[in-house]
Specification:
Layout (H helix, E strand, L loop, with lengths): L1 E2 L25 H4 L21 E4 L2 E5 L7 E2 L7 E5 H7 L4 H4 L6 E2 L13 E2 L2 E2 L5 E3 L2 E2 L15 E8 L3 H4 L6 E7 L7 E9 L3 E11 L6 E11 L9 E15 L2 E15 L24 E16 L4 E24 L2 E28 L2 E23 L3 H6 L4 E20 L2 E17 L5 E17 L5 E12 L4 E2 L9 E2 L3 E13 L5 E19 L6 E19 L4 E16 L15 E10 L8 E10 L2 E2 L7 E2 L2 E11 L10 E8 L7 E4 L2 E4 L4 E9 L1
Parallel strand pairs: 9-12
Antiparallel strand pairs: 1-20, 2-3, 3-4, 5-11, 6-7, 7-8, 9-10, 11-12, 13-14, 13-40, 14-15, 15-16, 16-17, 17-18, 18-19, 19-20, 20-21, 21-22, 22-23, 23-24, 24-25, 25-28, 26-27, 28-29, 29-30, 30-31, 31-32, 32-33, 33-36, 34-35, 36-37, 37-40, 38-39
Length: about 700
């Protein structure tokens, strides 16, 4: 065994940055000087991404740390991985994390209609919003209603790892995980201010400053912030936010780096997003919310760090740590039949959610014969706890607000996991072998403050193999498992108020696929076949009119194909198609063998963006996208169907600096979501919601 050559901290290959485009010089060299005033040379574009843990080039991600916990070319990872890059975020201007996933294969953020309160998405048919949320490679626990909200302006990318991933990351679901990458300090000066306004009086101001804080460049900083005041299409339903995210990196030498990442934000959205359901499987135009009592106020914060130090040629140490907390205060209301009319009730719900996680790992790089190894051994620890209070009144909003909400329950969870991963490269083969053991202690507290405890432990693993051909085609195969204890109570009988601690969710996946890195083009195409079994999954059941969780066994089987490209001619494209069948193996009475509700068999999306580089239209950008969501069942009994729907998005931008250097860095952009105002009911577990209508907004950005 011998160590491999020394690598510098953060040196994950050449940093992928797009160079500026230069005007063609068609005149002979001797005449060029006489016509110099007619020739425009564009400057190198300074981009927002740091290329620290997620290396990207346009719409194409090149290298990431998520699939292996070490920097690895994405095309060589034997598991399906999708990415949302910084350029895609800037072109599409998503307002929520859900919107940013709208063009991702295997992801479905369309099951609950318009609801900006939560990022409730599904991966390969499985709900992933509780056990599939990660930030910067660390688990991010959500409480029953206190969910950590992601601000798209504060991130530089999203990585979606499809299928079970517990062998490295511990608690996570069988559908996969979504990892949000926080904006990190850059080693070059970057300054940006942006104003935005549009439909429903939306007004927003954002800023993003980064660069070296001292002459030597050993200290880097970043400060990202945003302020927003906005209404929505629902009366008394705001979308206001104040967001600040400071970050600083200390790198005293080439072998050591410490990055501190923080956030403090305060948001106010509507407490009610639903419409009255007059009968099972039907939704009316009567908005459930009371405009005078409808605030969902949430304050959240996080603080943590990423530390890494190279000890010698073959050993690197890393420690990632974060604490975050969410305080949620929800005013909500609804209607119920009272004779021939409707009467109103008002509810008040508060919840405090806190969690802490620390991940310690050692990375070893060595050779055994002709095989090169990158191995990771680690141990992580996490705890999470929440307490909730819930009250409901039938007199008035004022009476409900003045009455203290009684205790509604809580939970405490402690988790320790140890893991080992070996990434072996031999000839053109790459073998991944990962194993992990988790121990979890859970204490659940009922509304009457009686306590129950539960201890869970499990071994999870992954085996994967890929082969890189000389044509850029990389076939792969993997088998992986997942393990996830669940936060919150579940109800075997959703008509009862008697709940229990949920059993852990376990999953296994068989997957084969192929990745194609198109030679001489900045383009990657991925196709995969998957078969996932899940036991004791947790889903919402709203058949009684109140969302409650229950457990069931599921099987997801299907295929995905996805293409991402950013070409030298200014054209970028994202295309994806997902076909799956989500079968209930064991669920509520009368549902075995049926398909899971609100899970379409087919989802297709296509987004293209073209930037004119030369001529009179230089600097003009045109973008358009289509999202097709196929039909699905509206309940698990499969008694009625949701209609298929098609959403069209568009973008128009102009870079003023493309033709006039004096305006370098100034960008005007207009984005439209659901351009043709497609609005249809969408029902899940028998309860029905409504899609959001058209929204249009414009932004003016200045980078300097």
């Amino acid at each position: 065994m011998k160590p491999r050559g020394k690598k510098l901290i953060g040196s994950s290959g050449t940093r992928a940055r797009r160079a500026g485009l230069f005007a063609a010089l068609s005149l002979p060299l001797g005449m060029a000087a006489a016509h110099a005033q007619e020739t425009v040379l564009r400057q190198i574009t300074v981009e927002a991404e740091s290329d620290d843990t997620l290396v990207q080039d346009g719409y194409v991600a090149k290298q990431d740390r998520l699939g292996t916990k070490v920097d690895t070319p994405i095309v060589e990872i034997p598991q399906a991985i999708s990415t949302v890059t910084q350029d895609q975020i800037e072109d599409q201007k998503p307002r929520t994390l859900n919107e940013s996933l709208g063009y991702t294969a295997g992801a479905n953020p369309n099951s609950f209609g318009f609801d900006t309160r939560y990022d409730a998405f599904f991966l390969r048919g499985f709900p992933a919003y509780y056990n599939g949320m990660f930030r910067d490679g660390l688990r991010q626990y959500n409480g029953p209603s206190a969910w950590f909200k992601t601000e798209p302006y504060g991130i530089e990318g999203v990585t979606i790892l499809k299928g079970p991933a517990s062998s490295l990351y511990g608690i996570s679901g069988p559908g996969g995980l979504v990892n949000v990458v926080t904006k990190r300090p850059k080693d070059e000066q970057f300054r940006e201010v942006e104003i935005l306004g549009g439909t429903y009086d939306r007004a927003q101001v954002g800023f993003d400053f980064s660069g070296p804080a001292n002459d030597s460049g050993s200290i880097l900083y970043r400060m990202t912030g945003l302020g927003r005041l906005s209404n929505t299409e629902l009366p008394g339903y705001p979308d206001d936010k104040a967001y600040f995210a400071p970050a600083v990196t200390f790198q005293p030498d080439e072998d050591t780096r410490l990055t501190i990442l923080g956030e403090l934000s305060h948001s106010v959205t509507g407490g009610t997003a639903a419409f009255y359901n007059p009968a099972y499987g039907m939704v009316s135009d009567i908005y459930e919310g009371d405009p005078n009592y409808n605030d969902f106020t949430q304050t959240q914060g996080r603080i943590g760090y990423e530390f890494e130090h190279r000890v010698n040629d073959w050993l690197m140490l890393r420690q990632n740590l974060r604490f975050n907390a969410v305080d949620a205060d929800i005013e909500y209301s609804g209607h119920y039949p009272s004779g021939a009319d409707l009467a109103r009730y008002w509810g008040h719900y508060t919840e405090d959610m806190k969690n802490f996680v620390v991940d310690n790992m050692a990375q070893f790089e060595f050779d055994t014969g002709d095989a090169s190894h990158t191995a990771v051994a680690g141990v992580d620890y996490a705890w999470a706890d929440y307490d909730a209070h819930s009250g409901i009144g039938y007199v008035s909003a004022e009476d409900t607000a003045d009455t203290p909400a009684p205790y509604a329950g809580g939970q405490r969870m402690n988790n320790v996991g140890i893991y080992l991963h070996d990434q072996v490269e031999w000839s053109d083969f790459t073998l991944f072998a990962s194993g992990r053991y988790d121990w979890v202690d859970t204490k659940s507290i009922a509304a009457d403050e009686t306590e129950s405890t539960q201890k869970d432990d499990a071994f999870s693993y992954r085996l994967g193999l890929s082969y890189r051909t000389e044509w850029g085609i990389v076939p792969y195969v993997n088998y992986s498992t997942s393990f996830s204890p669940n936060i919150g109570l579940v109800y075997d009988d959703v008509t009862s108020d008697v709940g229990r601690a949920a059993r852990p969710t376990v999953g296994t996946q068989k997957e084969i696929g192929v990745k194609y890195e198109v030679p001489d083009y900045n383009a990657i195409i991925t196709a995969s076949l998957f078969d996932i079994d899940q036991e004791d999954g947790v889903v919402f059941d709203a058949s009684t009119g109140i969302n409650k969780q229950r457990q069931l066994d599921l099987n997801s089987r299907g295929f995905e194909i996805e293409a991402n490209a950013s070409l030298d001619n200014g054209f970028s494209v994202i295309a994806s198609y997902t076909h799956l069948r989500m079968k209930i193996e064991s669920g509520a009475e009368g549902t075995d063998g049926n398909e899971l509700s609100a899970t379409p068999n087919d989802i297709f999306s296509l987004w293209g963006h073209y930037l004119f580089q030369d001529g009179s239209l230089a600097g003009l950008g045109l973008g358009a996208g289509i999202r097709y969501v196929g039909s699905s069942y509206g309940d698990d009994q499969n008694t009625f169907e949701n209609e298929a729907r098609t959403f069209v998005d568009a973008a128009l931008s102009y870079d003023f600096g493309a033709k006039n250097p004096a305006w370098d860095g100034v960008m005007l952009q207009v984005n439209a979501k659901n351009l043709f105002n497609e609005q249809k009911p969408i029902c899940s577990a028998g309860y029905c919601y409504k899609d959001e209508g058209r929204s249009v907004f414009g932004s003016l950005r200045y980078r300097f």
